Amino acid sequence: MRSVDRDLLDALKALTHPTRLRIWASLVDGPAPASALSARLGIPRAAVDRHLRLLVDAALIGRSEGREPDFSVRVQALASMGRRLAVLEQESKDPSLAGGPDVEGLSGDDAKVVRSFVHEGRLASIPVQGRKRQVILRWLLDRCFDEDRAYPEKEVNQRLGLYHPDVASLRRYLVDSALMTREGGIYRRASAANAPVEAPA
Description:
mainly alpha, elongated, three-stranded antiparallel β-sheet
């Protein structure tokens, strides 16, 4: 087992405070200055400033330049947290699998595809070949959208962003492959019976 990841612990600690979590969640909707956050959340300005400093120090949000800077969520920091937590989870199950993707339940060929494209919990690239891309899409579906419920597009982007920055392409491929449905910006897992098996390219 690797040594304690101090940066990861600091980030998690920052998000465990209910007020900081509210501030961070509010910034998911878009950048905002401290004054707007204070008015929007009903939190005294001094408290907002204090919590913002801690979130900036934990690298969970960034700030722009200017007299009244805007604060914004650092999506890549969140993605990094997800990757590091995934690695720790894998190591806790079996240290010999550290850094390798979870391929439990996959056939030998599908597991080989996942290992080829997923490194340290992150999708290195989106496969061009149809069959390989379908394997990766199903792997992502089971890890990002395991619940049979509605997923707003913002949440879809956040979940897919943990694995690859091109969330627009991944969203489109999931819908085009009939693994997910999309209606009015809301996504759902498609019925397994309606999800065709893509022919090899």
